[in-house]
Amino acid sequence: MEYEEAIAWIHSREKFKVKPGLKRMEWMMERLGHPEKKFRSVHIAGTNGKGSTLSFLRHILQQQGMSVGTFTSPYIERFNERISVDGQAIQDEVLAELVIRIRPLSEELRQTPLGEPTEFEIITAMAVLYFSEAALDIVLMETGLGGRFDSTNILTPVLSVITNIGHDHMNVLGSTIAEIAEEKAGIIKPEIPVVTGVKQQEAIKVITKKAQSCHSKVFKLYHDFDVTHQSSSHEGESFVFSNESFHSETYVSQMKGPHQVENASLAIQSAEVLRSLGIQMDRSRYEKGIASTRWPARFEKVKDAPLTIIDGAHNEEGTSALVETVKRHYSGKKIILVYSALEDKPVKKMLKQLESVVDTAYMTTFDFPRALKGHELADYSGITKTIAIEDYKQAIRKASSNVGEGDVLLITGSLYFISQVREYFEIKENLR
Questions:
Q1: Homologous superfamily of 300-429 in CATH?
Q2: Torsion of CA 132, 135, 140, 144, to 10 degrees
Q3: What pTM did the predictor assign?
Q4: What superfamily in CATH does domain 3-291 come from?
């Protein structure tokens, strides 16, 4: 099977159909000889910050000399990134081979009352099988949606991480913070420690209650461990981490935004918990792990002239973090926005947040099933100078031509949109 055929088959699965429950995953794991039990893992859930926290932790662990598998979503540049080892995406031929092995199971499963697996279930099964056969020290696995019924929840990890709780996928996960927290807390397993950055009292209550019922120790940000954000500069964010047994030197993260300091602290505390579990961990190497961390499309500079920043702020909390980062790093500068989003997002609320930093906005669209049209987004915008240009490449070109010296072009919205935008700049600017 060729790579292109393998990818086409994966994408032909029931992409957007959510099928709650783990029965199909359990069926596949049973047939594959339980590969999910053959490696040590950390399971990461949360509304925002999963990818960044995972990346900080991966770099910390790699600095310890470990080989680290990662499962993330969605991808930014290429599908293969979702299944990676030490930051290197799975090779085309290996991915195709996995499809050859998983496809017959999918077809067999379709004939049962459980029905065929979804696209995400297929990808999860491929990742788990791949990691089980690689010589890895640890695997970091990010949930796709929620936690309790997420296909990754077949794992019994050594550590669970819940980054935060916010308003996203409310049509699936619940309409209140407590209901969403209940879904995320579904990854907590008996006697497995939990690290969390959750702040809302109702969410903390839900997570604490679930952890207590599982006899699992919880480490809460600003309660069991702390991070002090010292400054924002051209280099990034300076901060100090501390818990009851460790107080760090000043670390500098190139990942910009105060929220990234919290994500970094979750990763450091996760390393600390792994250390307490007997995993060899040299604290003096944390600093280099933090300093070397990158994560594409998270307040990422893709061009110098004009200064162009891309960010996948695809929900209210992500947009709030983006606005705060813009204020800290580009206060007083004129901000030109190019924006596109999906129809199931709270677009009006997100654009309202952006009003405080944006001078001129270009609303656009891209090739995706649920993408709003540029003129539809313009109707939601309260930004005084808003222009609709349906072709996003044309919108970027037009916006770029109106960015003065010292000003900033900010491109944000759907992560799927940002994925296409990043590819556009990679071709133009040779980002690699």
A1: Mur ligase, C-terminal domain (3.90.190.20)
A2: -40
A3: 0.94
A4: Mur-like, catalytic domain (3.40.1190.10)
By DSSP bridging, strand 360-365 and strand 385-391 are parallel
> What digits encode the pLDDT tens for the residues 162-214?
999 987 545 456 579 999 999 999 999 999 999 999 999 999 999 999 999 99
What confidence tens digit (pLDDT) does each residue in 232-276 have?
A: 999 999 999 999 999 999 999 999 999 999 999 999 999 999 999
Closest CA to 64 of 325, 330, 268: 268
Task: Determine the length of the chain.
Answer: 432
User: In this structure, what is the dihedral angle of CA atoms 75, 78, 81, 87, given to the nearest 10 degrees?
Assistant: -120
- pLDDT of residue 119 exceeding 80, the answer is yes
Spatial distance between the Cα atoms of 426 and 432, rounded to a whole number of angstroms: 7
CA distances 410 to 35, 78, 294, 322, Å, are: 43, 22, 19, 10
Cα–Cα distance for residue pair 377/362, rounded to 1 Å: 9
Q: How many Cα atoms are found within 13 Å in the side-chain-facing hemisphere of 264?
A: 33
